[in-house]
Structure formats: C-alpha cells, structure tokens
Amino acid sequence: MRIISFSKKWDKLKQPVFTTFRYPRKDRDWTVGEVVQVYYHNRSPNREKLGVAGIINKELRKIGTAFSEYQPTESEAIADGFKSLADMTAWFRDTHGKRIFSEPVYKLTLKWVSLPPLEVK
Predict the structure, then answer these.
(1) Which domains are seen in the chain, by residue range?
(2) Which residues in the chain show pLDDT less than 50?
C-alpha cells in the first residue's frame, strides 16, 4: 500500500472526504480505487500515521495557467485549505518552482477507510 504524506495537518484531514492536489507519479500513477496510507511528515523520524483512505476521484488540473479550462477554481483552492486560488498558486510555485507551468496536477478526492486508534494517555 502506497503512502500519501502531508507536511501540514490541514483542517480538511478532519473531514470524511477530502481533496489534495498531486503531480502524476513517474513510477505508478495514482488511480481511482487505490487505497493509500495517509501520513503526517512521512520522511521524518517523528512521522505520524493518520489513517487509511481510498482514492474515489481523480481530475486533471493545471496550476499557473490563467484561463485554462483545467485551472482549479477559487472554491477548490479554499476547500483544499488555502485562503484563495492565488495563495494556492503561490504555494505551488514556492514548493515546486517552474514545474507548475509545464506539468499538470491531479485533484485527488479521498475518503477515509480507517483512522488510527486513539492513543490512551
């Protein structure tokens, strides 16, 4: 089972269904019906498993290209946890550089299958 990792505990992760924008994978691309493990800071020694989710939808989007029929909408950017589409575009530009102008991304919709057990303190 593959991993989708987040570097921030977005509020959207508290929803039963949430979205994330991801670049296509070069090894094996994301597919509808695939079940993935969801982690916070996966590559850190302090990683935290958030649960297991299934990909229920995959839609092509193009960030950084104005007037494209595939550009994310303002409401999609806000639902994904950003303040605005401009904020989302700036985050992708800062994180991925010029890649946003040449490669499409996928808007993945995921649904929680299972959440990790609550820790007893």
Answers:
(1) 2-114 (2.30.130.30)
(2) 119-121
CB under 8 Å to 35, separation ≥6 — which residues? 1, 52, 53, 54, 55, 113
Which residues, including other chains, have CB under 8 Å from residue 119's CB and lie 6 or more apart? none
Say if CB 99 and CB 88 are below 8 A apart. Answer: no
**53 strand-pairing partners:** 36, 112
Closest CA to 113 of 18, 27, 35, 25: 35
Question: φ and ψ at 109, to 5 degrees?
Answer: -105, 125
* DSSP character string of 51-109: EEEEEEEEEEE-TT-TT-TTSPPHHHHHHTT-SSHHHHHHHHHHHHTTHHHHS-EEEEE
pLDDT score recorded for residue 67 = 67
Q: Are 107 and 22 spatial neighbours (Cβ–Cβ below 8 Å)? A: no
According to the model, what pLDDT value does residue 118 have? Answer: 52
